[in-house]
Design brief:
Helix content: over 70%
Order of helices and strands: HEEEHHH
Strand order of the largest sheet: 1-2-3
Number of domains: 2
Number of helices: 4
């Protein structure tokens, strides 16, 4: 079990790092797009530059629908995804795995993966087209959601067994 805790700990820090990167990119992009700071235009596209440089960090289509639904919404949702993934990984670092709090962390994660990508894509689809890669990502998140649901049910059964054993003793 020590090996699982070590792997979970390393992946937890990696997922938190990814969550903070997505949060930073969301905030930084929003500030750049609203103020024009570190922003450069090339035709119908915008380039967001690294702070205080002329190096491009992000490129996007300069269109309000694209910016809101295909750009910032993706950053926000993946920031949330990596944050919740970190919470799930944190579950495996605990000494007591089968708790209601851990089941809740798994529940938040599987709900996010089962429903949010499809809903976000449905909303975006009303304003733009959806390509094949987006459909593949929805399927991938759905599979992650299903496995997380199964894991949550296993944890729920573990909590029930612990409660039965506590009553028996």
């Amino acid at each position: 079990m020590k090996e699982v805790k070590n792997i979970a700990k390393n992946l937890f820090y990696l997922s938190r790092f990814c969550a903070f990167v997505y949060a930073f990119l969301t905030i930084y992009s929003t500030i750049s797009l609203l103020t024009g700071w570190s922003l450069k235009f090339e035709g119908d596209y915008f380039n967001i530059l690294f702070p205080f440089t002329k190096q491009t960090i992000l490129i996007g289509e300069y269109n309000l629908t694209y910016i809101l639904l295909d750009y910032l919404l993706v950053f926000v949702l993946y920031g949330i995804f990596f944050w919740l993934l970190g919470n799930v990984l944190k579950v495996f670092m605990q000494t007591k795995l089968f708790t209601q709090k851990n089941i809740n962390q798994l529940k938040y994660f599987y709900i996010l993966n089962l429903f949010v990508p499809s809903l976000a894509t449905l909303i975006a689809y009303t304003f733009s087209t959806i390509d094949r890669d987006v459909i593949l990502l929805i399927i991938l998140h759905f599979i992650i959601g299903i496995f997380s649901y199964f894991l949550a049910q296993i944890f729920k059964q573990g909590v029930d067994l612990q409660n039965e054993q506590d009553l028996y003793i």
